[in-house]
# Entry
Amino acid sequence: MLEKFDPNKHKNILTPGIIDDKTSKNFINFRTQHSPGFYIISYLIGYQGFCQYHKDSDIRISMLYTHYRALVTREINHPAIDAIRYQLMTDPRVNQVKVDLNMHQFIDTPKKCERRMGTGLICMSTPMKRQDKL
# Structure
């Protein structure tokens, strides 16, 4: 069984979306490998949540290049949401990235590993895992 999240102990966090747990001076990398659903809206919600609830953590947002282009070119006729969009577009913590196929190698080579100090664990929610059949 994995130990409960402790922001003072678990300093580096990789997440595909918003984090409910409070953090304290953590490094948070918000990255997706594909559309997280609802296209750019999930990035806007996630970004606003990170800015509001994780103010003292170091946040990096890695947006797929195609999603960043959609963020820039899409017209949003809602002043509050458009303000978040502009803030996200101009934030230096936001990077444009390509899909990294190396992150999927664990699917093709399943292994059982012992948990060791100094290592990371990547957990995916049900919608995030690979499914051959629907």
Summary: Residues 115 and 121 are 9 Å apart (CA to CA). The first helix runs from residue 41 to 53. The mean pLDDT is 78. Strands lie at 12-15, 27-31, 58-64, 94-97.
